[in-house]
Amino acid sequence: MSLLVVGSVALDSVKTPFGEIREGLGGSATYFSISAGCFTKVRLVAVVGEDFPAKHVAFLKSRGVDLRGLARAKGKTFRWEGFYGDDMNEAKTLKTDLNVFETFSPELPSPYKKTPFVFLANIDPDLQRNVVDQISDPYLVACDTMNYWISSKPRSLRKTLSRVDILFLNEGEALQLAGGSNLMKAARHLLSLGPTTVVIKRGEYGALLFRKDSLFWAPAFPLEKVRDPTGAGDSFAGGFMGYLSRRKDLSEARLRRALVYGSIMASFNVEAFSLNRLRRIKREDVDRRYKAFRGLVRF
Amino acid sequence: MSLLVVGSVALDSVKTPFGEIREGLGGSATYFSISAGCFTKVRLVAVVGEDFPAKHVAFLKSRGVDLRGLARAKGKTFRWEGFYGDDMNEAKTLKTDLNVFETFSPELPSPYKKTPFVFLANIDPDLQRNVVDQISDPYLVACDTMNYWISSKPRSLRKTLSRVDILFLNEGEALQLAGGSNLMKAARHLLSLGPTTVVIKRGEYGALLFRKDSLFWAPAFPLEKVRDPTGAGDSFAGGFMGYLSRRKDLSEARLRRALVYGSIMASFNVEAFSLNRLRRIKREDVDRRYKAFRGLVRF
Known about the structure:
2 copies of one chain form a homodimer.
Chain A: E1 3-6, E2 10-16, E3 19-26, H1 28-36, E4 42-48, H2 54-62, E5 66-72, E6 79-83, E7 92-97, E8 117-120, H3 125-134, E9 140-144, H4 147-152, H5 154-161, E10 166-170, H6 171-178, H7 183-191, E11 197-201, E12 207-211, E13 214-218, H8 232-244, H9 252-269, H10 283-297
Parallel strand pairs in A: 1-4, 1-8, 2-6, 4-5, 8-9, 9-10, 10-11
Antiparallel strand pairs in A: 2-3, 6-7, 11-12, 12-13
Helix pairs in contact in A: 1-8, 3-5, 6-7, 8-9, 9-10
């Protein structure tokens, strides 16, 4: 079934101990779309500037991403510049040029207004709700967020949370949003704010799926080469949502498998800069890693 | 089958955000013995001073620990004082009084010299080898170590590693000992130093079991209340080695279950100060948590 994502399309300059890239294709909606695109048809809602390279548009199209929702505005494309030290768990931002993203106001093309599965990537919670408002009776709405919105727009974020089914966030953000230092308590609190499912991402330590009466723990796929963690969280959400949106079934078993697919897609993503690993992924690669995941936790 | 541990018996003063304890029973050999004692008969080799409270001796005996190897020396018992901040993953040491432990030279009572399973807790690697020398043809030797020995006695530690089958250490120590920042590569390097199995403990993020051709990931049991992490690593090793030493079978399946039992015993330990939770543990409690573990990772 179709899956809509709203978020950023960006040009990222990233340096890690293993190399660097200048103005590579990036952005939350991009990583999400390419990752989810392994499983389902993705409708993208984002904005780029006049300078956005045609080759990136061609690439997204070649992977089956529906670009009718990709607006092109006067000005330059959103750019981010950052680096990772030996601790690849956290990016240090050097520069953020919002450019056309600064005045982004998502307008859904009319065929998008009936999309059953919706993912609101990490953008202003006001805009996240604005997108939900434009969709008639979605089957499932999920969102991501970050420390910036947690501290600068806590009320708006709460309003958004009251309208989503699944919340994705990383461990530090979960503790920040809920207050306190215990992750189990934090997750319980987050479940009381609206979502029926909370997914907590822990980078190389895996991810947790919290629901009212259950808890599932997926490892991260252990890698010898992590070259660039940029986009790992959005690739994760893409694998999760892409798998899930193949049919209307939110059983515990399917949610668990979705978490594993999320972890798998994130593991591919971090093996190369930009989308260079994801762009070569075939379904067989995903299946092979899924099998390896089973072996990793079986006892 | 019998399992021998050599390590420390101490009186610990610990403060955490959830309370504190003054001169509670502690020490690596103590945590290990009580934890492993849920599965098998443990022979303890350690030293205490003249001031060591009789009630602690009585408690260890009541849990079936064989104390023929517990020497009592002139002087005071080893004392450690530390605290944990909100990040319960790392202890800050305030004071270490080695006392009688400073001149500890383990002498095995003659019945101990034929013990099939041996655990060398975190002590001077010279002493670790000295203990192995006293045992005739052990079936399995495991050891733990720490940053202090990795930096101060690297050569001696390597000699010890060449004589052990299983190495336990935490993530930071693994990276320090192997050099580099990638855990997979570090584990592969550690396996080249002698051990056929490397267990890497990651606190609340679980533990990994590395062997030449396999990798297993066990989660940590998620807890709402972590009161005092002191002794978690030794309780972990105790659960692992206690389960394993019930028979001579080092199959992959048994090693994996051992890792889960290690994680379970550590999870009980951190729920209370000193050994206050472990001292009340029954086999049914362990079995219940084992079942919950399966539910936690099943997909």
